[in-house]
Specification:
With about 350 residues, the protein is α+β, with helices and mostly antiparallel strands. The protein has eight helices and eleven strands. Strands 1, 2, 3, 4, 5, 6, 7, 8, 9, 10 and 11 form an eleven-stranded antiparallel beta sheet that branches. A hairpin with a 2-residue loop joins strand 8 and strand 9. The longest helix is centred in the first third of the chain and has 19 residues.
């Protein structure tokens, strides 16, 4: 059904632009998105409100079997698209921002012996399935990627604070509450991300071969990534993108393709134009489902992925709308060697 819908939409754009000189694929996609947004705007008087701006620095991510990790939950944000049309491209504003960010992505240059330090601050949100309790816990996760990626990689995980209880308390739930999923400590791997040789490669856990196999064409890449999440085109898809980019291992050419692929995510909208992650300001694009909005935060001027946030879209579980229940902050820099900070 989605392919048929896209064919009709594409033919509409071609008809509308029939007396215009030939254009690039990128320009065609932008024109298509703009036309769809214009059509939808005329069909609905709905006003899309931006989420309130938040200035707190908070890092995010995880969950596991017996618990529900809300850090990645999402909500269905108001859309500029008609509700009765079914799946369609995201808003024209979101598509334009992603196209612009894709043109600015770049890679750091490493000399022999140097390493790329990926520093991730994470605030995990962990809850039981019935939300009888929920807490936040901070952790710092560092990865050092060698200039020769076939060499040894170094990882260092450190908890940075006590649990912050949002629902319940340590005293009430001490026997029921599990520890954070990530084990503190230091470990190494050879030739790629930590588990690349022990689990099936995916966007969340890429191997070197997986990275090399990703198609550069944004539409093909979108289809491949959609298949990885069993056809999901909402919250789960955006969670996967955030989890993968959090690793810091994706080269500029792939990040650019990922940004372009996100223009095909149906409900992706700009939800905050001045989102702050770790004192850095970017634009948050989000998908909303049920109680929460999953956000990816990008500096559109540099193409830098800044991190992710999960925010309550409405009052839920005794918490107020706008409560940040998870976030990640990711920075990278070139350092003199493994384990070093400069």
């Amino acid at each position: 059904m989605r392919d048929v819908t896209r064919q009709v939409e594409d033919e509409t754009v071609k008809w509308a632009m029939s007396d215009v000189a030939p254009m690039s694929d990128e320009a065609f996609d932008r024109g298509r998105a703009a036309l769809l947004a214009r059509i939808d705007a005329e069909e609905s008087a709905e006003v899309v409100a931006l989420a309130p701006r938040r200035r707190r620095r908070i890092p995010v991510v995880a969950a596991a079997a017996a618990m529900v990790v809300i850090a990645g939950a999402a909500l269905i944000a108001p859309s500029m698209m008609s509700r009765d049309k079914g799946p369609s491209v995201g808003s024209a504003a979101a598509a334009e921002l992603l196209h612009q960010a894709a043109t600015h992505t770049g890679d750091a240059t490493l000399r022999p012996g140097e390493a790329l330090q990926v520093l991730r601050y994470a605030r995990w949100s962990v809850s039981d399935s019935e939300h009888r309790w929920m807490y936040l816990q901070d952790q710092t996760l560092q990865t050092w990627i060698p200039s020769d990626r076939t060499d040894t990689w170094l990882y260092r995980h450190t908890k940075t604070g006590e649990r912050q209880w949002l629902i319940g308390s340590e005293q009430d739930n001490a026997r029921d509450v599990p520890e954070n999923l990530h084990t503190d400590g230091e470990f190494t791997s050879t030739g790629g991300p930590a588990l690349h040789d022990r689990i099936k490669p995916s966007f969340r856990d890429p191997s070197p071969e997986y990275l090399a196999s990703l198609p550069p064409d944004p539409r093909e890449l979108y289809g491949k990534l959609r298949d990885e999440v069993a056809g999901n085109e909402g919250l789960t898809f955006l969670q996967m993108i955030n989890d993968g980019l959090d690793t810091g291992v994706y080269p500029a050419r792939v990040r650019a393709s990922v940004y372009q692929a996100l223009t095909y995510l149906p409900r992706l909208e700009i939800v905050e134009e001045a989102a702050v992650i770790d004192s850095r300001s970017g634009t948050a694009l989000g998908v909303t489902e049920n109680e929460t909005t999953e956000q990816i935060v990008i500096d559109q001027a540099t193409g830098e992925y800044l991190g992710s946030r999960t925010v309550l879209a409405k009052d839920a579980w005794g918490l107020k709308r706008g409560q940040v229940i998870g976030t990640t902050s990711v920075t990278t820099k070139v350092v003199a060697g493994l384990g070093l900070g400069s």
